[in-house]
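Researcher: Next sequence.
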Amino acid sequence: MTSKPKAKASTTSRRTADTLPSIDQYEQLYVDLIGFVPPRIRNRLRLGKEVGPEMLDMVEKIREMGMYPKSMSVKTAQMILFGILLSHIAPAAEFHGIAAKRAGATRAEVMEASMLAAALRAGAAVTHGALAVKLFDKA
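Model: Next structure:
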């Protein structure tokens, strides 16, 4: 039986659970962005803080970078996320639509993002349908 290799010591300084942000600090990103903390996010934050605070911190840093990209406005980022999530029929699309509105998106812009997502879904369905129909050509 072989033993597990020892984990390499990290050369970067890692924050410990004692120095990580509080749940209130994590929740503030969501309050600033959409005006409230959705229940599923609140549950994820609380459970993450309890069982994996360092991993939670990494995930929240990535999410914050995604919500506030350097190369585009928050409105643009939220419109993109809204459209992507709509095209996946993901419930979180609603929250990114709210964030886009809070960041200055107009009613027309949000609707046009919805139309882009619809076109993407429809196009994908037709493309996949055509592939299925092509199977009949080989029969």
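Model: Residues 9-13 have pLDDT under 50 and may be disordered. The radius of gyration is 21 Å.
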